[in-house]
Amino acid sequence: MLSVAPQPFSYESPRERYARVMAQDRAARQAVSHPSIAQVTELFDSMGGSTISYQQDVFPTPNAPAYDYRGRQLRFVESDLQREARMRYLQKRHAADHDLILKQAKEREDKAEADRRAAIDAQQEKVEKQRKRIEEARAKERELRLFYQQQQRQTQLSKQAKNSESGKATGSQGATKVPEPTLEDQIVAATRIQAFYRHFLRRKRSISALTSIRVSFDTIASNFVSPPSISPNSSSAIKELPFTTATVLIEDCEQSLLRLLSRLDAVEPLNDVSVSVVRKYLFRKIAAALDDLDDLKDWIVVHHRPDATSTASPSL
């Protein structure tokens, strides 16, 4: 006798079957569109090697079938070519991120090295300035010490000379021998003599230059003659001063005075009162003469009339 084991039977209504299929569809779509953080981490870990691994994919194949009983697609099925292209893109993205991280680290190292070198250079410059300051202070102190020693030696020599003179006056023979100057005293004396002689030569050159400028100014002032009458030249290319004779005289005098100013500016004052006073005096004289020339030119422009034949010019 054939015995059949009872099979479990569960009735599923069409409404329940439709609800189950829709739930599976939503789960598959959510798994494809929203991968978990663990899946993304596994993907980046798998991209660490040189080969592509398909075992730990972002989209693992679920156990649910790809199609339902009616032939409708329940989830996205990725082909091997699509998966390979996606993995290749992810590897390129990972390599670009890695290169960017290395580049930023290199820039930070370069900036730190540049800051360190700048700090070292600043410290060395500070030490060098301090060393120069100390050397200058020592040189000044040495010079002052030599000066005071020389003053004391001169005071002693003057006292000895007075004592010797008083001894001679009283008939005593207490003449003292003048000591020989040392090498440092000779160097200091020679340096001062050279400085004084150089200053004397510069002052002499400045005085001779000022004398020459004064003579030239007197010559220019005496040779300049204001034109008695001004005749306009209609064919002149200069619209501001269409006067042939007056224009030539004024321009020549003005250029000569400007050259004198250049020569006067080249003279060194040398912190000498007399040279400074003479320079200021000559500068005022030349500036006043230039102002007079400007006034004459302004008068020529203002009193020019196209119908006028001749006009008397003012005297400087």
TrEMBL record:
PROSITE patterns per the UniProt record, alphabetical: IQ
Keyword Lyase applies: no
Keywords, comma-separated and alphabetical: Coiled coil
Compositionally biased residues, Polar residues: 161-175
Keyword rRNA-binding attributed: no
Compositional bias per record (Low complexity), positions renumbered to this chain: 150-160
Residues forming coiled coils: 102-144
Annotated segments matching region Disordered: 150-180
Protein's name in the database: BAG domain-containing protein
UniProt organism field: Sistotremastrum suecicum HHB10207 ss-3
